[in-house]
Amino acid sequence: MTSTEETAREILRTVMRYRRGAPGAWRCDTPGDTPCERCLLPHLETVRQRVRAGEPVVFVLPGFPCKSPNPAKVLGVLPDRAEQLALEFLDGLCARIREIHPPGARIVLCSDGRVFSELIDVPDAHITAYQAELGRMLTGLPGGALSLFSADDLEEMRGEPHERVRAWLDARYGESPEELRAQVRADAEVLRLYRALTRFLFEDRLTPERTESRSALQREARRRAYGVIGRSRAWGTLVSEHFPGAVRLSIHPQDCGSPKFGIRLSARGEDGWLTPWHAVAVERDGVFALCRRSEAEAEGARLVHRDGRPSHFVATRTAPPARESADRPLAPAARPT
């Protein structure tokens, strides 16, 4: 009979095969995709307790906020084939855990678009529509292992205007701008996130109707990046309170031994920082990958519609377009201010 310890470790090893490690060596004690003891320790006791109790292992994953507002990246405001592929991957991962631990696993997608909508230039109406369609997608998954949680589900703020919910989150869980700036300067992991967010925020405003200069957009992106980090961390604290017995996942690369670990949203590890909500799905020879909409169109890929709206692209030639990479330099450079 397999022991509780062996089962817990095998569950974590299964999930960590798809982890997103920080660029470079991650300071991990073992090579390749095999997690070392430092990788496992922050999460091992949480999984042990679930296994010992004969309960599903619960994971929480903040993400799936909304589509990027830049039409050069995405097909519209609703989740499409890019999100569907990610959901199918996560549902399948839970099925693999069920083979190890019959009670299985559950992943709670903590949709965070409502949390920082005004910081990313996305109307609340678009976030409402995105979450509704995401929920519909979840009901069609065969494993039924994924669920959705958002700021709209907070009992203490039910019925309140979205602006008030965000103000409440800041007041209860937020950090001061000075604290955030100090952390960006002192912590390499936080700096990496700040640079990535600055880049995304800058690119999302590179639309034809914007009249500001690139340097002005960059300065504004730096300012808003601090706000997104602060609001995201506040949301993470709230999620931890609401799901105290859950293993914490992240869509962002994490170092070995972090209290949460980064997870990819597909079995392929080539998409780097790119996520379904900043990209489109492109099928080449039966295999899907993510890229920006503008790249798919430049390649001459054919747009496919499903249920009367754009879904994904099918490439008409085999050469792939340039993809995002975790090692690709951030352009323009984002320096802490």
From TrEMBL:
<dbReference type="Pfam" id="PF05141">
    <property type="entry name" value="DIT1_PvcA"/>
</dbReference>
<feature type="region of interest" description="Disordered">
    <location>
        <begin position="313"/>
        <end position="337"/>
    </location>
</feature>
<dbReference type="InterPro" id="IPR007817">
    <property type="entry name" value="Isocyanide_synthase_DIT1"/>
</dbReference>
<protein>
    <submittedName>
        <fullName>Pyoverdine biosynthesis protein</fullName>
    </submittedName>
</protein>
<dbReference type="InterPro" id="IPR017133">
    <property type="entry name" value="PvcA"/>
</dbReference>
